[in-house]
Amino acid sequence: xxxxxxxxxxxxxxxxxxxxxxxxxxxxxxxxxxxxxxxxxxxxxxxxxxxxxxxxxxxxxxxxxxxxxxxxxxxxxxxxxxxxxxxxxxxxxxxxxxxxxxxxxxxxxxxxxxxxxxxxxxxxxxxxxxxxxxxxxxxxxxxxxxxxxxxxxxxxxxxxxxxxxxxxxxx
Length: 171
Fold this sequence. Notes:
By secondary structure, the chain is an alpha+beta fold. 30% of the residues lie in helices and 36% in strands.
Protein backbone atom coordinates (compact mmCIF):
# COMPACT_ATOMS: atom_id res chain seq x y z
CA UNK A 1 0.00 0.00 0.00
CA UNK A 2 1.35 3.42 -1.02
CA UNK A 3 2.09 6.05 1.59
CA UNK A 4 -0.87 8.46 1.63
CA UNK A 5 0.59 11.06 3.99
CA UNK A 6 2.32 14.33 3.23
CA UNK A 7 5.59 14.75 5.08
CA UNK A 8 7.52 17.93 5.80
CA UNK A 9 11.25 18.13 6.35
CA UNK A 10 14.24 20.33 5.84
CA UNK A 11 15.74 20.05 2.36
CA UNK A 12 19.04 18.15 2.17
CA UNK A 13 21.85 18.32 -0.38
CA UNK A 14 20.66 14.98 -1.78
CA UNK A 15 17.38 16.72 -2.73
CA UNK A 16 19.16 19.03 -5.18
CA UNK A 17 18.01 17.37 -8.43
CA UNK A 18 14.44 16.87 -7.21
CA UNK A 19 14.30 20.44 -5.90
CA UNK A 20 15.45 21.87 -9.22
CA UNK A 21 12.81 19.75 -10.98
CA UNK A 22 10.15 21.02 -8.55
CA UNK A 23 11.16 24.65 -9.12
CA UNK A 24 11.10 24.13 -12.88
CA UNK A 25 7.61 22.66 -12.73
CA UNK A 26 6.37 25.40 -10.39
CA UNK A 27 7.52 28.02 -12.89
CA UNK A 28 5.35 26.41 -15.57
CA UNK A 29 2.27 26.36 -13.34
CA UNK A 30 2.15 30.00 -12.26
CA UNK A 31 3.69 33.30 -13.24
CA UNK A 32 4.17 34.12 -9.55
CA UNK A 33 7.24 31.89 -9.23
CA UNK A 34 10.36 33.74 -10.30
CA UNK A 35 13.75 32.07 -9.87
CA UNK A 36 16.06 34.18 -11.97
CA UNK A 37 19.07 31.84 -12.02
CA UNK A 38 17.26 28.51 -12.33
CA UNK A 39 18.26 27.82 -15.94
CA UNK A 40 21.95 28.13 -15.04
CA UNK A 41 21.80 26.16 -11.77
CA UNK A 42 23.55 22.80 -11.67
CA UNK A 43 22.65 19.95 -9.35
CA UNK A 44 26.10 20.19 -7.79
CA UNK A 45 25.76 23.92 -7.09
CA UNK A 46 22.25 23.47 -5.70
CA UNK A 47 23.54 20.72 -3.38
CA UNK A 48 26.23 23.13 -2.16
CA UNK A 49 23.58 25.83 -1.61
CA UNK A 50 21.40 23.43 0.38
CA UNK A 51 24.35 22.39 2.56
CA UNK A 52 25.22 26.04 3.22
CA UNK A 53 21.62 26.94 4.09
CA UNK A 54 21.36 23.96 6.45
CA UNK A 55 24.36 25.31 8.39
CA UNK A 56 22.88 28.78 8.75
CA UNK A 57 20.35 30.18 11.16
CA UNK A 58 19.22 32.90 8.76
CA UNK A 59 17.63 30.67 6.14
CA UNK A 60 15.79 27.40 5.69
CA UNK A 61 14.23 25.41 2.88
CA UNK A 62 11.42 23.08 3.89
CA UNK A 63 9.97 20.57 1.46
CA UNK A 64 6.66 18.75 1.38
CA UNK A 65 6.76 15.20 0.02
CA UNK A 66 4.01 12.86 -1.06
CA UNK A 67 4.73 9.28 -2.10
CA UNK A 68 8.43 10.11 -2.32
CA UNK A 69 7.93 13.14 -4.60
CA UNK A 70 8.61 16.78 -3.73
CA UNK A 71 5.31 18.63 -4.08
CA UNK A 72 5.92 21.93 -2.32
CA UNK A 73 8.37 24.10 -0.48
CA UNK A 74 8.67 26.95 1.95
CA UNK A 75 11.76 29.10 2.10
CA UNK A 76 13.00 31.74 4.47
CA UNK A 77 16.06 33.57 3.17
CA UNK A 78 17.88 36.50 4.70
CA UNK A 79 17.30 39.60 2.61
CA UNK A 80 20.54 40.80 1.07
CA UNK A 81 21.58 44.04 2.68
CA UNK A 82 19.44 43.52 5.79
CA UNK A 83 20.97 41.06 8.25
CA UNK A 84 17.87 41.15 10.46
CA UNK A 85 15.12 40.42 7.90
CA UNK A 86 14.11 37.31 6.04
CA UNK A 87 11.77 36.81 3.12
CA UNK A 88 9.23 34.00 3.08
CA UNK A 89 8.51 32.05 -0.09
CA UNK A 90 5.79 29.41 -0.37
CA UNK A 91 4.80 27.23 -3.32
CA UNK A 92 2.87 24.02 -3.89
CA UNK A 93 2.34 22.12 -7.13
CA UNK A 94 -1.04 22.90 -8.67
CA UNK A 95 -2.24 19.26 -8.41
CA UNK A 96 -1.97 19.58 -4.61
CA UNK A 97 -3.54 23.02 -4.10
CA UNK A 98 -6.37 23.39 -1.56
CA UNK A 99 -5.30 20.40 0.55
CA UNK A 100 -3.74 22.29 3.45
CA UNK A 101 -0.15 21.72 2.30
CA UNK A 102 0.60 25.43 2.06
CA UNK A 103 -0.71 25.87 5.61
CA UNK A 104 1.49 23.04 6.88
CA UNK A 105 4.57 24.50 5.21
CA UNK A 106 3.78 28.01 6.45
CA UNK A 107 3.19 26.81 10.00
CA UNK A 108 6.51 24.96 10.05
CA UNK A 109 8.40 27.90 8.52
CA UNK A 110 6.97 30.22 11.17
CA UNK A 111 7.89 27.76 13.92
CA UNK A 112 11.48 27.79 12.66
CA UNK A 113 11.46 31.60 12.39
CA UNK A 114 10.15 32.11 15.94
CA UNK A 115 12.26 29.43 17.64
CA UNK A 116 15.51 29.13 15.70
CA UNK A 117 16.12 31.96 13.25
CA UNK A 118 18.50 34.78 14.00
CA UNK A 119 16.20 37.19 12.19
CA UNK A 120 14.02 39.94 13.63
CA UNK A 121 11.59 40.44 10.75
CA UNK A 122 9.85 38.14 8.27
CA UNK A 123 8.33 39.67 5.17
CA UNK A 124 6.80 38.66 1.86
CA UNK A 125 5.22 40.16 -1.23
CA UNK A 126 2.05 38.66 -2.70
CA UNK A 127 -0.03 39.57 -5.74
CA UNK A 128 -2.87 41.86 -4.74
CA UNK A 129 -5.25 39.64 -6.75
CA UNK A 130 -4.26 36.48 -4.82
CA UNK A 131 -6.92 36.85 -2.13
CA UNK A 132 -6.64 33.23 -0.99
CA UNK A 133 -2.92 33.61 -0.24
CA UNK A 134 -3.42 36.99 1.40
CA UNK A 135 -6.06 35.50 3.75
CA UNK A 136 -3.77 32.56 4.55
CA UNK A 137 -0.91 34.89 5.46
CA UNK A 138 -3.23 37.11 7.53
CA UNK A 139 -4.54 34.05 9.37
CA UNK A 140 -0.97 33.22 10.37
CA UNK A 141 -0.19 36.71 11.64
CA UNK A 142 1.04 38.65 8.62
CA UNK A 143 -0.11 42.25 8.25
CA UNK A 144 -0.23 44.21 5.02
CA UNK A 145 2.23 47.08 5.38
CA UNK A 146 2.48 48.59 1.89
CA UNK A 147 1.33 48.34 -1.68
CA UNK A 148 3.99 47.61 -4.24
CA UNK A 149 4.57 46.05 -7.63
CA UNK A 150 6.47 42.87 -8.34
CA UNK A 151 7.59 41.44 -11.64
CA UNK A 152 5.95 38.20 -12.71
CA UNK A 153 7.83 35.45 -14.53
CA UNK A 154 7.06 37.22 -17.84
CA UNK A 155 8.74 40.41 -16.58
CA UNK A 156 5.49 42.38 -16.23
CA UNK A 157 4.81 44.53 -13.17
CA UNK A 158 1.92 43.21 -11.08
CA UNK A 159 0.12 45.04 -8.26
CA UNK A 160 1.11 43.47 -4.96
CA UNK A 161 1.15 43.98 -1.23
CA UNK A 162 4.09 43.71 1.14
CA UNK A 163 3.29 41.85 4.33
CA UNK A 164 5.19 41.50 7.61
CA UNK A 165 4.81 38.81 10.24
CA UNK A 166 3.45 40.25 13.48
CA UNK A 167 2.71 37.02 15.35
CA UNK A 168 0.12 34.29 15.45
CA UNK A 169 -3.47 35.50 15.41
CA UNK A 170 -5.76 33.56 17.76
CA UNK A 171 -9.26 33.40 16.22
